[in-house]
Amino acid sequence: MNSQSALQGIPENVTIADLSRYIVQTNRKYDLSIIVSAYEFAVLAHGNQKRSSGEPYIVHPLSVAWILVSLGMDTECICAGLLHDVVEDTQYTMDDVCKRFGRNIAMLVDGVTKLVHMKYHALNKEEQQAASVRKMLFAMADDIRVIIIKLADRLHNMRTLHFLPPEKRKRISKETLYVYAPMADQLGIWMIKEELADRAILFLDPIGCYEIERALQLKDTDAKTFIKRIQTELREHLAEDKTFQNPPEITGRVKSLHSIYNKVFDADKKEDMHDIDEVYDKYAVRIIVDAELECYLAMGIVYAMYSPVPQRFKDYIATPKANGYRSIHLTMMDKTGVAFEVQIRTHEMHLAAEYGIAAHWKYKLGGEKGGRRMDEWFAWARKLIEEQQSADDMEEFVRNLKNDTKQDIVVMTPHGKSIFLPKGATPIDFAYRIHTEVGHGMIGAKVNNRLVPLDTPLQSGQICKIECSKDPKKGPSRSWLNIVKTNEAKSKIRSWFKKERREENIQEGRAMLEREMRRNRMQVENEEELNELVKEEFGRYNCETLNDFLASIGYYGISVSNIMPRVKERYDKLYKKPEEEPPIEIPKPPVHLLQGEQNAIILDQIDHCECRLARCCNPVPGDEIIGFVTRGGHGVSIHTKTCANYQRDLKTNDPERIGRWITASWGKVERALPMVVSLDVLASDRVGLLFDVSKIVTESHIMILHSNSYSLKNGNAVCEVAVKVGGNEQLRQLMDKLKRIDGVISVERTKRK
Questions:
Q1: What is the CATH number of the domain that holds 110?
Q2: Quick one: which of 195, 222, 299, 630 has the fewest CB in 10 Å?
Q3: Active site residues
């Protein structure tokens, strides 16, 4: 069985028998008895638990184990994959796992277990997720297999993400795109990185992805014909050269969705859009040869056959990427004017590119060289932890992770050493990438023998020389924190100030905090009051005392602007007098109820005021409703009782907020004015789906204001319709009819208007 197809082709409702057969087919040495034992324990622990898809929970750990086998991971790793959710989601503890399966497997399970019982209850959901990522990275620094298990876990979760609510899908997809896909890239596991990124971007921007897929589908036949023709031409010309030990292997494909998406829609600036025809490397052909020398021989033949696109040549064999990726990339143009990418690599380079660090277990690549590469990966993991030690802000820690895994430019030292940096990096970033002491001691920089300012953005191919002070006490400047682009440099600068300037940091942090407090009209009398005011923040930033907290602010480990909203809220609760609270003014304008008198609202506590329907929940006549007294003379906004804003205030139990919610109901009217409602119809993708939906709406004598449909990658489609209905009963009848359409999975009201 092909390894890559196995990664994609996990049997539906996979069983332990399926997994056992697959393990035997690999012809690698596994202890099947302990794997089966781990499965049986997982079954016992998870019991009758179900996933959001409705399938037994055990299917998920079995699928994770299948992916790990496909990657060639060892017995301990497979067992940990089967047990990875036991501690997090069942009554069993880490001690139970350790007693049954030993310390090594227990440590792997612990590394991928989220921090479900947080020491600091003040942490919000995002901060807890960040803390869990940090915990996983610490475990990864000791055993790199932790992150491989987590990547396999995340991969299967992304394949079943469509069963979760939209908000959760978006949050998980963001985390996947900005944390786990870059990590897979850094570890060189291309096949996982590409799939994670593709699936994440599909949930984050389905419309943009649909546009790309549609554009590619329109040219699908032509694309396949084009790639096949290029493969044939290359195969014929390469076969004519008898220098090759064996005939080169040639494959072709359309580039991944995420790769094309990033070039069509700039990831950071959506306004910078390009036509898909401007993406020169959406078609790719790969040439795989036996020896490194043959790569350059093949490159010469390609250059003789086609015209090169200027400045589109990258030799990652001579200058490998930071993750160890090695290959030659050429962008060529055929006689018809169609551009395409050619990748040239050896078989060993190809396996390393596909499997990255996993190739160490799967193929035992490189002997001593492979061992050195493993050391480099472990060094990367440890360096990542060291860089984040002084970051303190766990949210910033996760945000910066994506930037540190992007290595877009290559800058050379005067001795010819290649230094990989993100786009926009400065000489300061370059100095710290060489060595910490070089960064601390730098006083200037020369680029291509010209003295440049320290904030100059570096470019690929430049030679940079760092000028250092002879004073051993020389240290960085605080202003550098506003210049550098890499988290590595920021972390090392902060760390220097943290160690060498603690008292100075405390004073600077106190001044920064007091300045921001004055700006927000907050005043405390003494040290005790200040400590009481900010102590809830200590847990967020790993601080034990007030001085630790102030020092972290002083060396920019904590952003004052980030903490101030929470500090201000606490200050108002502790010190602000009730009479200072501005009174709630209920306006008394003439009665203007909704769009007309026919859609009347009865407010039990207020005789006259202006009402409006809340856009967050779009109530319609027949819904249970409640009113919220707004500030600033805007009257009362009408919400459904199921509205998330109302439910949130009920949970917080804030008297001031609760007091502004008032009883409301629909007035008895002869005929309600029509109301706009948006619906999402999720169904199996097929021809005529939108027509059937429109037909049902029309036959119900309901006006359609807007309709649209788009396909999803999982084989389903969504029809969006905006309609005018006379009330809740008419809406309910329409939704019931739509649910009876062939292939419809669900019909839901949305917040669009």
A1: 1.10.3210.10
A2: 222
A3: 88-89
